[in-house]
Amino acid sequence: MRVLIVDDHELFRAGLALLLRELFPNIELLHASTLSQGVNHALGELLNIVFLDLDLPDGHGCNALAELKESRPSLPVIVISADESVETISRCIELRAMGYVPKSSPPEALHAAISAVLAGGVFLPASSIARLRRDMGTDETPANGPVKAQSSGNSEMSNASELGLTPREFETLAWLVRGLPSKAIALRMGIEDITVRKYVSHLLAHFNLRRRTELIVTLADRGIKLGVPPVTDPAHDRSLSAVGRPRTD
Q: Which residues form the Response regulatory domain (predicted)?
């Protein structure tokens, strides 16, 4: 597994690296202290995932996430930030972050969060999920799928049958969670964009939701894991240039 850490605090990068190596002894880590360094790494390296701080010397707030996702649309990004406002968390989800980990998390919580996202799950602060669901109007909306939510610390991964999905719907869901827009998913899966949109509609109906952002919050709330994100190739992302900037719905 190859992971990029983009954070301007060397001590925090070192601590995060220790946690990652504890979870994955053979992990290969790349470090960047600025957004420009992070983008350069992302454009030139085969990577599974990026951990991104929002407060960088040359890129502040959600603009840093937007720039990184624009450069590498297929690369999953987990935001790790001292900003714990629900508004910032919600905006990052809209910008196709795969999850959000507060820097104030105690080591055991950070450990569980990292374990979850590297297993293909979505992690959001527990304190923010209820507010996000309420703001989105889904706090009392029943969702289909597994009856019992998994613990975020549970390493078991879901499969299509457990979620009541077809294999192609499950694959579409995994790419949606990792932050790809529908046209990029179509290229990845070798199918037409209209077919991907049909799968997305089925997924939203299956979970009784309306938008991708609601889906991300639901998956985080229920601790569903979809498998380790595959290595993404920057050369392939260049073929996505015609897709345009990712949608936020």
A: 2-118
